[in-house]
């Protein structure tokens, strides 16, 4: 039976449960939260105060931190054992928030961005552009570029609303491990870390189950460079732009990897991806 520890959060006594990871026999601590109004507010406050919160999206679970807080962002890398050379995706509630975090090389890039965001957000599409000086270098892996997306999941969107900060989040697993689609998957892999995990429950967990499509807009070559295939198809991207008079081709530079599902059971397979650049 798991051991129960207690601590004070916002003047209230909250329970922390000791979870045992599948890969290790040592006991580890993490906090499981529900999606009640009270727990969502606790999660939002944790993000604002520099903590880490794992949350469901329509793709996979993300491990989030305030994207504008470099110290908090660094804790993501520590918890995941993730190399600092791997950039993070920033989750936003809408395209207006994304535009405040980005700088475009020309008006056409902005037009393409807005067209894609208007048609595919909220949803599994991440668009990479030049980061504004609001975004810490750690988020961009010192590339100066950042991917933003608006998740299509009720829990993720509510968390963004109550947190009132953009959320940097790769997938909520140790680097190189299978991307999680259930809260228990997160606890099995990251239960040793000082994180909160919002348990979406089986009815509202990750419906898509694979990460977002990641692309960058090239207005000179008139290409969409797809760095990772995911929940948005290349055909849909091209057709959407073509309908508004933007004739862009789609060039794919990466593919999703398939492997066994997070249950670890032999013979149980799925198309759940390994963690890719940006994670979510």
Please tell me about this protein's structure.
The protein has helices at residues 37-48, 70-80, 95-99, 107-120, 137-140, 154-163, 183-190, 234-243; strands at 4-9, 12-20, 27-33, 52-56, 61-66, 89-91, 102-103, 125-131, 145-149, 167-168, 195-198, 213-218, 223-228, 249-252, 259-260, 269-270. The protein has 280 residues and is of the alpha/beta class. The strands form two sheets. Strands 1, 2, 3, 4, 5, 6, 7, 8, 9, 10, 11, 12, 13 and 14 form a 14-stranded mixed sheet that branches. Strand 2 (12-20) and strand 3 form a beta hairpin. Helix 1 crosses helix 6 (154-163). The two termini are 33 Å apart.
Question: What count of helical segments does DSSP give?
Answer: 8
Distance between the termini: 33 Å
Helix content: 25-40%
CA radius of gyration is 18 Å
* Class computed from helices, strands and strand pairing: alpha/beta
Notable characteristics:
two-stranded antiparallel ribbon; 280 residues; 14-stranded mixed beta sheet; single chain; disordered N terminus
Task: Describe the SSE topology.
Blueprint: E1 4-9, E2 12-20, E3 27-33, H1 37-48, E4 52-56, E5 61-66, H2 70-80, E6 89-91, H3 95-99, E7 102-103, H4 107-120, E8 125-131, H5 137-140, E9 145-149, H6 154-163, E10 167-168, H7 183-190, E11 195-198, E12 213-218, E13 223-228, H8 234-243, E14 249-252, E15 259-260, E16 269-270
Parallel strand pairs: 3-11, 4-11, 6-9, 8-12, 13-14
Antiparallel strand pairs: 1-2, 2-3, 4-5, 5-10, 6-10, 7-8, 8-9, 12-13, 15-16
